[in-house]
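User: Fumarate reductase. Structure?
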Amino acid sequence: MSSSPVVVIGTGLAGLATANELVNKYNIPVTILEKASSIGGNSIKASSGINGASTETQRHFHIEDSPRLFEDDTVKSAKGKGVQALMGKLATDSPLAIEWLKNEFDLKLDLLSQLGGHSVARTHRSSGNLPPGFEIVSALSNNLKKLAETKPELVKIHLDSKVVDIQEKDNSVSAIVYENKDGEEHLITASNVVFCSGGFGFSKEMLKQYAPDLVDLPTTNGQQTTGDGQRLLQKLGADMIDMNQIQVHPTGFIDPSDRNSSWKFLAAEALRGLGGILLNPATGKRFVNELNTRDVVTEAVQKQCPQDDNRALLVMGENMYKDLKDNLDFYMFKKLVQKLTLSQVVSEYKLPITAAQLSQELQAYSSFATKADPFGRTVILNEFGTDVTPETTVFIGEVTPVVHFTMGGAKIDVKAQVIGKNDEPLLKGLYAAGEVSGGVHGANRLGGSSLLECVVFGRIAAESIANDR
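Assistant: Predicted structure:
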């Protein structure tokens, strides 16, 4: 039985889930390496929620769902790419992931929204004033920080520590080499390492290599998201799959004070799931089912909206403010969303229609709660009402497609083991979870499945390590 710590690379939700499960359930020591100077990765910014099928929260709202239906939605969204066994595992373990977060970390996860590509509402978030990613990451990281102080023999956390090499011996992991912020190299002896290092959506170099047509798009990714893990795993001989499958999210906020910034705040999909609609500034009209999959909505924006700046208008009603008050207050504080009357909207955004015509457009959308939407949207929530006038107030922001998520990465199996090109585990003791891995999402990730992937496969990696020690 190995007594060396498990090395977890990365402190996004995948790394935090892996480490918490290892220490809390199996009492296995961990050393966590994070190249940034703070914990959380991109996970801390996730703002729509985490998926789960057949959960207690769904039962509370009388929503009928099943892991099989969730798997079917995932496979459909994946469009023939990825690994269906991993999609099945994601769906099957989803209620366990929600239960684990609620029971182990006292998270409510008591509210739901239905995002694009989902058959039912299954994306969980908590009532309260914290965004889902921040709330979940904070709960898991606080537990580990506490243990690092009280039980340093069980948990060690090294920030500003970039992994530069994985050493192997006899076809097994033997050590990890990392650099601190002063460029000094350190070696940790370890027989197990879990890559949870995230994607490569910030790396222009890797985007140029795998998806050159996306290089000029802005991104929602933090500057740490440069594919270091993918490069190391490729060098080791991992089977890198679907690397050219990169998700462009249709709605990144345009900051009016810095319109050309290459980094954008994400306009969470929950904003559309809970009632937000998209208008084409060139017509002042709706142009797409806002709850189609992200690739389809993105294509509609890019083909139909003004080509010079590729923007759409995200419009939300007063009723929705009650559901997402904290999100909208934050976006308004950042001046990404304004509260305006429809007359002001027409004037401010120079729409080619009158305020009365815009009123009719919003009123027509509201009527689709009782009759078919011509664009095929079936979830009509928080509609604008039947008495919309030019003086009706709405919440509105400009949005544009953004590089958001890299679906490809190192192929893993259902035990979270990294797979080599011979379809066998590459090295004994080598695991991956989260965005660094490939196969879970195929050609298009469903909203709410990134946080879920982190929890499901992080916990699986921990279980596989425990079973093997």
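The radius of gyration is 22 Å. The longest strand covers residues 393-406.
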